[in-house]
Amino acid sequence: MSLKTCAETDSAMVNRQGILTLLWLRVRQAVRYLSLCVQIRKERTVLSRLTDSELLDIGVNRADAEAECRRTCFDIPSNRIEVDRLPDNNP
Known about the structure:
Layout: H1 6-48, H2 52-57, H3 62-70
Helix pairs in contact: 1-3
C-alpha cells in the first residue's frame, strides 16, 4: 500500500472540482435551453392567435406565421441560443 503525497491528493481534488464545475455548467446549459424552448413555444402560440391585421403591423404574412407555428419547441433559431463559455484550464 502506498501513501499519496500531498501534491497527488491536491491534484485529485482539483480534478474532482473541475469535473463538478463542468457538470454544473452542463446542467445550467440544459435548464437554460429548456426554459428557452418554453419561451419560444409561448411566443409561437401568441403568434398563432394574431389577426391578419396584427400580423401586417409586425410585417409578417399569415403563411409565414403558420410556418413558424408548425416548428417544434426544440427548433430554436440560432440567434436565440446563448452559449455558456466553459472555464479556461490555463492558470
